[in-house]
Specification:
The complex is a heterodimer of chains A (372) and B (98).
Chain A lengths: L4 H8 L3 E2 L4 E2 L6 E7 L2 E8 L7 H14 L4 E8 L19 E8 L7 H14 L4 E5 L7 H5 L6 E2 L5 E2 L1 E3 L3 E5 L14 H14 L5 E7 L6 H9 L4 E6 L3 H16 L4 E6 L4 E2 L6 E2 L6 H9 L3 E4 L4 H9 L3 H4 L4 H23 L8 E3 L9
Parallel strand pairs in A: 4-5, 6-12, 6-13, 7-11, 7-12, 13-14, 14-17
Antiparallel strand pairs in A: 1-2, 3-4, 8-9, 10-11, 15-16
Chain B lengths: L3 E6 L5 E5 L4 E4 L1 H6 L27 E7 L3 E6 L7 E3 H10 L1
Antiparallel strand pairs in B: 1-2, 2-3, 4-5, 5-6
Classes of the chains: A alpha/beta (372), B alpha+beta (98).
């Protein structure tokens, strides 16, 4: 068959994105197609740099184009930078403008391992090539410092802005623990806490990030509302443990996000089971199937079930997330899967929300005039 | 989930939205000011309306429209009032009831 643009594009229509249910040509992923004799090169512009199936796309493209008679095929993977280019000039609300996706990690109840999940999701995303940041918004009980073994204070600039601390895995982190004495309690009333959060959101120079994970404090209160109102969350991951008491709170958390229009990426069931190092059997300490039940009744996906593993549990205290320290553990694999699924779900949300205004601040006078 | 695709103003000075379901709404500034759901205008516990419509000028104007998270807009008016957060689905209701 003749090696021309039309034929190549037609053939590439066979490559489907399993999440968006469209082919890569239709999705405009194929860019910069060049044909030089029997040598072909092209860019694949993916929705996210951490796309878990990028290598599969690449291999499929190469074999299809070779099938058309090309001797050499070069596929370069690129990713769109949060569609900055085609948006009309947006007012700069804060440094968050350079963050492509803000994803919350929340729970209705404390002690379910939100921070552990946040740390490991971030590490898994970072290992897959994404630029990742963590905002530890749990201002009463910040734990990101411990989880990543950070003992540095962030750099504060003259204009009162702050540079995040770069932690293991190149993850940018800002946490309340960097500003407060670790042994003193943060005793704040709602308004002050909300103000602190707004500072965190607006005054941190995050730089270009693909994902900013926000570790929510437990519950459904002031801070949670401030967070959801002040930054356009792409989605939220809800963490729970399998027992009924945690699930009840988890439902409340989900209801809150529903009422503020933040879509739920899925549920992570932490402390799902314990694998005995003596008998090797999985023990369901907090009963079984709680996460599945709530996922089913509320029609949100169950992203992962993270087991209790003593060695992995130590990781948090020792300052290196399990995904980095024990990449072959059951927990690490579950975290990696959850991160993959998060990336794919956020890409679907992006696609569905195409053309929708996210973050705006208009002067009435400057709005375009149209008939109703 | 209802979200705006475009915000505009009409020749009559109404504030307009084009929604992601394809429909459009337009509200006069006074209609929006009277529908303000904030705690100064509506009692938080009883839902009783505290705002006296006669206190709102016929010519009240919208100054600014700002997104609040992903579910609402905050509107500031030229009478100094700016504490109202208008969820998108409430605006849709307002369209239907108009």
């Amino acid at each position: 068959m003749l090696l021309n643009e039309q034929n190549i594009l037609n053939a590439l229509r066979a490559v489907q994105d399993p999440d968006l249910h469209k082919n890569i040509v239709e999705l405009n992923f194929v860019q910069n197609l060049k044909i030089d004799g029997d040598k072909v090169s092209l860019d694949l512009r993916l929705t996210t740099p951490a796309c878990p199936i990028r290598d599969r796309f690449k291999d499929q493209c190469i074999s299809i184009i070779k099938g058309l008679g090309a001797s050499e095929v070069e596929v370069t993977l690129t990713s769109s930078e949060g569609r900055v280019g085609d948006a009309p000039e947006k007012p700069k609300v804060s440094f968050l403008g350079e963050v492509a996706h803000i994803v919350g990690v929340a729970s209705g109840k404390g002690g379910v391992g939100k921070s552990t999940v946040t740390a490991n999701l971030a590490m898994a995303l970072s290992l897959s090539g994404a630029r990742v940041g963590i905002l530890d918004a749990d201002i009463y009980g910040p734990s990101m410092g411990l989880m990543f073994g950070i003992d540095k204070a962030p750099q504060v600039f003259e204009d009162n802005t702050v540079a995040p601390v770069e932690a293991k895995g190149g993850i940018s982190i800002v946490s309340m623990c960097m500003f407060a004495d670790s042994d003193k309690a943060t005793i704040w009333r709602g308004p002050m806490a909300s103000q602190m959060i707004q500072h965190f959101l607006n005054r941190v120079r995050w730089g270009k990030l693909d994902y900013l994970l926000v570790d929510f404090p437990p519950g459904t209160g002031d801070i949670q509302l401030t967070l959801t109102q002040n930054c356009p969350m792409a989605g939220v991951v809800v963490v729970t443990t399998p027992q009924e008491v945690a699930l009840a709170d988890c439902r409340k958390g989900l209801a809150m996000f529903d009422s503020v229009g933040v879509p739920v990426v899925g549920i992570v069931e932490n402390m799902s089971y314990f694998v005995c190092d003596g008998c090797g059997k999985a023990h369901h300490i907090f009963r079984e199937g709680g996460g599945e039940r709530i996922a089913k009744t509320l029609a949100v996906p169950l992203m992962a079930k993270i087991p209790l593993e003593p060695a992995v549990a130590d990781c948090g205290d020792l300052g290196t997330p399990a995904v980095l320290r024990y990449p072959n553990s059951l927990s690490a694999k579950a975290f990696m899967e959850a991160a993959d699924q998060m990336v794919r779900t956020i890409a679907v949300f992006d696609h569905e929300g195409e053309g929708v205004l996210k973050n705006f601040n208009y002067e009435f006078e400057n709005l375009p005039e149209e008939d109703a | 989930m209802l979200q705006p695709k475009k915000v505009f103003r009409t020749p009559e000075g109404k504030l307009g939205f084009e929604w992601n379901d394809g429909s459009r709404s337009a509200f006069s500034p006074r209609q929006l000011r009277l529908a303000c759901p904030c705690a100064l205008c509506v009692d938080e516990h009883t839902g009783e309306k505290l705002l006296d419509p006669s206190s709102v000028s016929e010519n009240v104007k919208v100054l600014q429209v700002q997104s609040v998270g992903r579910y609402a807009v905050g509107i500031s008016f030229d009478d100094g009032h700016r504490s109202g957060i208008y969820p998108y689905d409430k605006l849709m209701e307002l369209t239907k009831n108009a």
